[in-house]
UniProtKB/TrEMBL annotation:
It is found in: Cytoplasm. It comes from Rudanella paleaurantiibacter. GO terms for biological process: porphyrin-containing compound biosynthetic process. This is Heme chaperone HemW. Probably acts as a heme chaperone, transferring heme to an unknown acceptor. Binds one molecule of heme per monomer, possibly covalently. Binds 1 [4Fe-4S] cluster. The cluster is coordinated with 3 cysteines and an exchangeable S-adenosyl-L-methionine. The keyword Transport does not apply. Belongs to the anaerobic coproporphyrinogen-III oxidase family. HemW subfamily.
Length: 371
């Protein structure tokens, strides 16, 4: 089983980010207490009480103090049995990772996911990141000195105006981290970049540039010995992100905190994406969540959407079981077209994206959705 904790606070708003967060940290302590309450209320949500992974996401979980982390873990251990070999990940920003902070974090977590995004000082400023280029590289060295061997870094590609992608890949490879996640820059309406685009201050993103960067990414990392096990994720052998893999493989997980999602095999639960409403509900002992019971079609479509993004693909046998009929026969026309486009292949009863198809993963999945 798997536990996700959403820590909805950031020092400042990155210009591209539309995740749920607040830059007002005044109620951080109250939020920690509310999340502890939610963990207690939700303890029976999962089919088993043993946790294989714990993941602190956000927001910026590296803003948590030791006292706040300790209280959260007290509650986690009181309600669940954390496996001895559990993967415990915390997302961190480079500017938070001082030697003292890393020493503290090492007492609680065994994996860091560091939001570097780019090593370019100019591009960092343009995106309104809180850290600088020196901290982007220095934090990895400091993390290793503090005893963290299981490290991941995030990068963003498709950045316009700056020719930094090859430089970013070179710097990332020089750090020799065991895991790397890379995401295409997107422009979301309710962000600074979205508003700049609407006002004509920022040109529309070039999809061709992003496609070129993705090809450069996959070829460069394959040449460096990384396994491309999910569209946006690359790892040295034995260093796949176990928590995120659980999502992609449809395993049950509990998400706590504002905007967090949960899945128990037959339904999904969605927490309110509003800090004040979340706090108010938990202070009253109520769960601030809505539940959606998944239909057979929902389960087929979610399996396609997540499974096709991975190297394992989607089992035709499992798709047929979920669909209540022969999926290959039901979707023969759509499958045939995807095979002809060379975006999809059937290898030993598993549907997998081709290298060309990885550029259109969501479109391929949507083509196969059932009603």
């Amino acid at each position: 089983m798997h536990l996700y904790l959403h820590i909805p606070f950031c020092k400042q708003a990155c210009h591209y980010c539309d995740f749920h967060f607040s830059t007002n940290l005044s109620r951080k302590d109250a939020m920690v207490e509310a999340i502890r309450t939610e963990i207690r209320l939700q303890a029976a949500y999962l089919p088993s009480s043993e946790l294989q992974t714990v993941y602190f996401g956000g927001g910026t979980p590296s803003l948590l103090t030791e006292a706040e982390l300790a209280r959260l873990f007290d509650t986690i251990h009181a309600q669940f049995a954390v496996a001895p070999d559990a993967e415990i990940t915390l997302e961190a920003n480079p500017d938070d990772l001082t030697p003292a902070k890393l020493t503290m974090l090492r007492r609680y977590v065994n994996r860091l996911s560091i939001g570097i995004q780019t090593f370019s000082e100019e591009a960092l400023r343009w995106m309104n990141r809180a850290h600088n280029a020196t901290e982007a590289e220095q934090c990895v060295r400091l993390a290793r000195e503090a005893g963290f061997d299981n490290l991941s870094i995030d990068l963003i590609y498709g950045i316009p105006l700056f020719s930094v992608w090859q430089y970013d890949l070179d710097r990332a490879l020089s750090l020799n981290v065991p895991h790397l996640s890379a995401y295409a820059l997107t422009i979301e309406p309710d962000t600074a970049f979205g508003r700049w685009t609407q006002k004509g201050k920022l040109p529309a993103l070039d999809e061709g540039l992003a496609a070129d960067h993705f090809e450069q990414l996959t070829q460069t990392l394959a040449g460096a010995g990384y396994e491309h096990y999910e569209i946006s994720n690359f790892a040295r052998p034995g260093h796949y992100a176990r928590h995120n893999t659980a999502y992609w493989q449809q395993r049950p997980y509990l998400g706590v905190g504002p905007s967090a999602h949960s899945y128990n095999g037959h339904s999904r639960q969605f927490n309110v994406a509003n800090n004040a409403l979340y706090l108010r509900a938990l202070e009253a002992g109520e769960l601030p969540a809505e539940t959606e019971v998944l239909t057979p079609a929902d389960r087929v479509n979610e399996y396609l959407l997540t499974g096709l993004r991975t190297q394992w693909g989607c089992s035709l046998t499992e798709l047929s079981q979920l669909a209540g009929g022969d999926f290959e026969q039901q979707q023969a026309s759509a499958l045939g077209e995807l095979y002809r486009q060379q975006w999809l292949q059937n290898t030993d009863g598993f549907l997998r994206l081709t290298p060309a198809g990885k550029l259109f993963a969501d479109r391929v999945a949507a083509t196969l959705f059932v009603d």
